[in-house]
Write a structure and sequence with these properties.
By secondary structure, the chain is an alpha/beta fold. The protein contains 17 helices and 15 strands. It has helices spanning about 1-15, 40, 55-60, 80-95, 105, 120-135, 150-155, 165-180, 190-200, 215-240, 260-285, 290-300, 315-320, 350-355, 375-390, 410-430, 475-485; strands at about 30-35, 95-100, 140-145, 185-190, 245-250, 255, 325-330, 335-340, 355-360, 365, 375, 395-400, 435-440, 460, 470-475. An 8-stranded parallel barrel has the order 1-2-3-4-5-7-12-13, surrounded by 6 helices. The chain has a 3-stranded mixed beta sheet with strand order 6-8-9.
């Protein structure tokens, strides 16, 4: 593998050398900048004011073996109590909007449809949202960011089709309670991670290992729940509340490992399995054809009476198709994609269905996350692919950032934002891609799931050893503020 990399990676690096020099063009006037967090990662107050238990509370308290240092989100950044301070941090950055998520368990402690609403939870989100609006910051709200109420996991979690109706009941509740204040909604954040890592690989809560079966069932329920929520908003709330709604899909950019047709096909197959798995149904009504064909074929060889990939009915395909007002993309890095021999039929997994080996180039700049390499040109290629594949939609970048081990003088993060934003701007100006928003992950250091507090993504440092959770701006915060103010990435605009 190393020998092959030397042969064909170096030309790619030379080809994209230009991407490592930031453009001096300015961002168009319509382009908006934001920052993001997620409820379990920052709020804390895990059992205060009537909040119920969610799957991350449960895993952290009962089986934290896959979480670094056995960390948890019990207090996290204490944003539940410090939201006004957080809003002032956001205001100081000068961003246009703040993307945050709601805790389902804080709003419906039991999670189940028909159970009582926790008014104190609603009050918290109304207060936060109003505080943002009062300070000229637009709220962008994600309904679900991985923290499923534990009572819903007790009945099987997302592989259980019943969860579709439980989610829609929850969505109706938040439209009714918060819709007068919120104009941008996202139903799910990174459903691939919810399904593949939560129910397939088992490396995220709830830790279920059923790759190639439960992860596909999870996705099927979740996609139908999204579509039903979209139609609910469209039919009953949009005319009065005048908002927009979509879903946040995530993907790495997959670069062919060589110029061979097989590796080019492998890269496209990886994009379809990773990104198209969720976005293709929502745009076009059904799973990518390559995914349908491969899972069908392998399921048959494995002796299954029907495909392990669930089927949408014709009616469901039409109902799901077009349930988006924008395409929201979380992306951080790039992998090489290489075709491999057909796995043995007894290998039952999502990975064997995909039939692609993914790997990193050791020459790419590392971060504190083993999976994240700094590859600025990848984001330009990705948004071009999304634009061409899905008929030039409006694209929001809803997460993008880089990790380190902490510190205030974070030149690596400043450089990351400068170069990635430069490639986005070139995609807009030179390629005609309709990217209109960019969201930095994250506002502040927080609980990074299985990595606990070991990896830092924030523009603001948080002292987790202090009961006050003291926030301190990093050098990257100053840089991001300058970009937003000048709409320019360098000093020579």
């Amino acid at each position: 593998m190393v020998t092959r990399l030397v042969l064909f990676v170096l030309p790619c690096v030379l080809l994209f050398e230009k991407a490592y020099t930031a453009t001096n063009r300015t961002f168009p006037s319509y382009f908006k900048f934001g920052v993001a967090t997620a409820s379990y990662q920052v709020e804390g107050a895990w059992n205060e004011d009537g909040k119920g238990e969610n799957i991350w509370d449960h895993v952290c308290h009962t089986n934290s073996t896959f979480i670094d240092n056995k960390d948890n989100g019990d207090v996290a950044c204490d944003s539940y109590h410090k939201y006004k301070e957080d809003v002032q941090m956001i205001k100081n950055l000068g961003v246009d909007y703040y993307r945050f998520s709601l805790s389902w368990s804080r709003i419906l402690p039991r999670g189940l449809a028909g159970t009582p609403v926790n008014q104190l939870g609603i009050n918290y989100y109304r207060n936060l949202t109003q505080e943002l609006l009062d300070n000229g910051i637009e709220p962008m709200v994600t309904m679900f960011h991985w923290d499923l109420p534990e009572p819903l996991q007790d009945i099987g979690g997302w592989p259980n089709p019943e969860l579709e109706d439980h989610f829609v009941y929850y969505a109706r509740t938040v439209f009714e309670q918060l819709g007068d204040l919120v104009k941008f909604w996202m139903t799910f954040n990174e459903p691939k991670q919810t399904c593949q890592e939560g129910y397939g690989l088992g490396v995220m809560a709830p830790g279920i290992k059923s790759s190639g079966i439960a992860d596909y069932k999870c996705a099927h329920t979740l996609i139908k729940a999204h579509a039903k929520t979209y139609h609910l908003y469209d039919d009953e709330f949009r005319a009065k509340q005048n908002g927009s709604i979509g879903i946040v899909a995530d993907t790495t950019w997959y670069e062919p490992a060589s110029g061979s047709d097989a590796d080019k096909a492998a890269a496209e197959r990886a994009l379809q399995f990773k990104f198209g798995w969720f976005l293709n149904p929502i745009v076009n009504g059904n799973y990518p054809q390559v995914m349908i064909d491969r899972v069908d074929e392998r399921s048959k060889k494995q002796g299954f009476a029907q495909s392990r990939l669930p089927k949408f009915t014709d009616e469901e395909i039409e109902y799901i198709k077009g349930t988006h007002d924008f395409v929201a993309v979380n992306t951080y890095t790039t992998n090489y994609a290489q075709d491999v021999e057909e796995p043995d039929s007894d290998e039952l997994s999502y990975e064997s269905d995909m039939k692609v080996e993914l790997f990193l180039d050791d020459d790419w700049e590392e971060s504190a996350s083993s999976w994240l390499r700094v590859v600025p040109w990848g984001i330009r290629k990705l948004v071009n692919w999304v634009s061409k594949t899905y008929n030039n939609p409006e694209i929001f970048i809803t997460e993008n950032g880089v990790s380190d081990r902490g510190g205030i003088e974070d030149e690596n993060r400043t450089s990351f934002y400068r170069e990635y934003l430069s490639n986005i701007l070139e995609a807009i100006e030179e390629d005609g891609v309709n990217v209109t928003r960019y969201t930095a992950w994250s506002l502040m250091d927080n609980f990074e799931w299985a990595r606990g507090y070991a990896e830092k993504y924030g523009l603001y440092s948080v002292d987790f050893k202090s009961s006050n959770r003291t926030r301190t701006p990093k050098a990257s915060a100053d840089y991001y503020k300058q970009v937003i103010t000048t709409r320019c990435l360098v000093n020579s605009c």
